[in-house]
Amino acid sequence: MGKVKIKKSDVWIDMTPMSDVMVLLLTFFMLTSTFVKNEPVKVVTPGSVSEIKVPEKDVLNILVNKDGRIFMSMDKVTDLEAALQTITAENGISLNGEQIKKFKDDAMFGAPLDKLSDYLSQDKSDMSAVLPTLGIPTDSVKMSDGTMGKSEFQQWVSAAKEVNPDIKLAIKSDQNTPYKVVKKVMDELRDMEENRYYLITSYKKVED
């Protein structure tokens, strides 16, 4: 008796629902993701067993590179622009619209106030190359009456706190940064009665 052959039929799977899901997921991640700007100054943070997370919003990041130069960044552009307006008004610095836009677009800032206008007048590519050679000074500024006022570092911190009282401070230093430089930063904050801040480190597991 001959075998009955079963006719094979092609299997067709409708992939339209899967495509819709992929598009929805892609759209979701694009809308909710925070794009990180390229940082011209790089640091390698020391390891720590602490699991305390640094807030992602309302943060003034204080970055200290291995050469001991200090830079800052703020997550809110509106706060950054307002702080810049405060600083320039207090120090008699005039910036044009293009310079202000460059300042807001920069991943971080760190030019001394007497070089700020010249720095922001350069091409963006030149700014990225020059910034690591600068840094925010921590020396007290001599006032017109001869007294010593706040350092430029303290002025920026004060301006940030003024425009956003809820802003948190986070110090991120390179593992090779001299301790005296980090201590100087903490002393500057202590003089302002800013005694609460985060120290950013890389997570390190506890060794057995």
Automatic annotation (TrEMBL):
Q: For this protein, what is any one GO molecular function term?
A: transmembrane transporter activity
User: What membrane topology does this protein have?
Assistant: Single-pass membrane protein; Single-pass type II membrane protein
Q: Write out the entry's keywords from A to Z.
A: Cell membrane, Membrane, Protein transport, Transmembrane, Transmembrane helix, Transport
Instruction: Give the Pfam families listed for this entry.
Output: ExbD
The yes or no answer to whether the keyword Transport is present is yes
Q: Name one GO biological process term.
A: protein transport
Metal-binding as a keyword of this entry, yes or no, is: no
Compartments annotated for it: namely: Cell membrane
InterPro entries, sorted: ExbD
Annotated Gene Ontology cellular components are:
plasma membrane
Q: Which family does it belong to?
A: Belongs to the ExbD/TolR family.
Q: What is the name of this protein? A: Transport energizing protein, ExbD/TolR family
Originating organism: Segatella buccae ATCC 33574
